[in-house]
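Sequence in, structure out. Go.
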Amino acid sequence: MSPVPVTHILFVSTALFFIGMYGLFTRRNMITMLMSVELILNSVNINFVAFNKYLYPGKLDGIFFSLFIITIAAAEAAVAIAIIINLYRSHHSIDVEDAGELKY
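Output:
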């Protein structure tokens, strides 16, 4: 079985990144914006693993960076979902424009 060329992996990573950017800039729902950020982080993970495999096959630096990003993404998702739940309880909406009208 032949290995997958690095250009194919980078194409998939670039596609994921731009899908995430499109979702982040065009959606107003906070859940879809959070999913878009997760797509962007996953595309970065794919880049780290691909470059680690093709440039430094004996080292695990890219894998460690990917594990660190996965850990940070999990913490970020937990905090973001908690904030979204609080905003929904107070405003009965998870629309970004409704969250901009917070009055303290």
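Check: The chain has one domain: 6-92. Residues 6-92 form a domain with the Helix Hairpins fold (CATH 1.10.287.3510).
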